[in-house]
Amino acid sequence: MISSVQLQRWLGPLPGQREARAFAWISLTVAVIICTISVLRGFHGQTFMGRPLGGDFVQFYVAGKILNQFEPARLYDMDLEVRLQHEAVPEMSASQMLVFASAPAVALIYRPFALLPYRWGYVAWLVFSISLYAAALVLVIRSVPLSNEHRRTGFLLGLSAVPFLLETWIGGQISVLAVSTLALFVFFRSRNSSFLAGAALALALFKPTLVAIPILMLLVGRCWRMLGGVVAAAMALGLVSFLTVGTAGCIAWIRTLQFYGGIASGTGSALHRNKYVDLGSFFHLILGDPSLVAQILALIGALGALATLGYAWWRSGKWSSAAQSLLWSATLAAALVVNVYTPIYDTTLVVIPVALCAPVVFGKSQVVQDGFTAWLLLVIMVPWLTQAVAEFLRFQPFTLVLAGFAGWALRQAWRQTGSDSGVQHTDSVEDRTSTLAAPEVSAYAGALGSSAVAESSRTNNSVRRLSVSLRFYSSLPTLIWERDR
To answer: Is the separation of the CB atoms in 5 and 430 below 8 Å?
Structure first.
């Protein structure tokens, strides 16, 4: 596993909150420009960057239209779906088709949008989805103990995340609904309402792959009250779905899920693997879609990850709230990788594990905080290039970033348990760095961060070494500003 110290050596001086906010505003500006151009061209019947207006939104719009105008049991009638999609968006390629595979209850959300002409329905969805996502971010950030400064920065970083802006928002996907349900989970968990937290988690079962592993971990961890909430909400969701499309429609949904599962876990090339970050897609990209070895490696990796998480959850019964927050962070991040399939837009959910991890980490040593900052930097930056790298180099770097962050969070959870019990862990690189640095530095080094001084003497990064040296001989107010910005 890559340590945070190694990441800092590779990345050099880490950005502060001022740089993070500036980058977030730049990302938001770029996304708004792209969205505006896409909408304007779409209203003139033109594509933008080879894609028709709304991207994947058309499949959800058509789902709402079927409920509005046809027999609800036909919700998963693929022939009807394809015909209505091409009627709504004539610019679509004749060979293109999008299959609605979400739970029947989800289609109810799109009925109001389907009452509008497609183009205006998409514009209405843009306003609705970004409003819902922003509200979810506020709820999450307000549910964890952060300073106002960190909350403002976290909100901007979450809102400007590439998986949300380009893939979910402009792409017309529904991952924003899953983020909203997990935001409710964080809210209820912060108030020790385990039953309601489990119910909120189960609401994301409209797309079972998103929360199957977290729910499995609840069973392993013997979290019975939260599991009770999961069961209750799952039954309610099932009842709403049954009342929406009936028995025939529910059976058709299950068949659609089986169809998707066969594509994702098989050796075919129906999926654009460069847009997926799960282990199966990762190995299929490297070894080729027909490779049986890729399937075996993905299975071995998934079993290893599940066993590691399962052991932690089995032991987590008496862990502190901070350690359990880190465990949840690791579990939710790992679930994006250890999955049947995870498209890039579903990685919007990574804002939840980051938010759970942040308040615990900010109470730790400077080295641990720097490690979190380094992983956060990768989570933010890699999605900008990950699809291009996956397409041309047959390698998906974001898979490794998500897996690495999950492993780092799990490691911090185990270290937290040692801290809670008074056990001193001194065998890690970070602990040794902190131990060595303490007696060697003055109040100036304390303001700058002792880990930065200690590591600057060992790093091969000349820019970082020069930056730390210059700041070390600066005045104390300057040092404090540099540290906290």
So the answer is: yes
**For residues 203-237, b (16+ Cβ closer than 10 Å) or e, as one string?**
bbbbbebbbbbbbbbbeebebeebbebbeebbeeb
Tell me the HSE value of 58 on the side-chain side, using a 13 A CA sphere. 23
pTM exceeds 0.90, yes or no: no
Long-range pairs, 158-162, Cβ under 8 A, ≥24: 158/351, 158/354, 158/355, 159/24, 159/28, 159/133, 159/134, 160/23, 160/24, 160/25, 160/27, 160/28, 160/31, 161/348, 161/350, 161/351, 161/380, 161/383, 162/27, 162/380, 162/383, 162/384
In eight-state DSSP terms, residue 55 is: T
Q: Print pLDDT tens along the chain (485 aa).
A: 455 556 556 656 667 788 888 999 999 999 999 999 999 999 988 888 878 888 899 999 999 999 999 999 999 998 999 999 999 998 888 778 888 888 899 999 999 999 999 999 999 999 999 999 999 999 999 999 988 888 999 999 999 999 999 999 999 999 999 999 999 999 999 999 999 999 999 999 888 888 899 999 999 999 999 999 999 999 999 999 999 999 998 999 888 888 776 666 555 555 677 889 999 889 988 887 667 888 889 999 999 999 999 999 999 988 999 999 999 999 999 999 998 889 999 999 999 999 999 999 887 888 888 889 889 999 999 999 998 898 888 899 999 999 999 999 999 999 888 766 554 443 333 333 333 333 333 333 333 444 444 444 444 444 444 444 444 334 333 333 333 33
Residue 130 near residue 138 (C-beta atoms within 8 A): no
Cross-strand bridge partners of residue 162: none
Q: Are 296 and 310 in contact (CB under 8 A)?
A: no
- Return the amino acid letter for 433: T
What is the DSSP track for 326-337? HHHHHHHHHHHH
Residue among 355, 351, 326, 377 nearest 7 (CA):
377
Contact 158, 348 (CB under 8 A): no
467 membership: H or E segment, kind and range:
helix 462-472
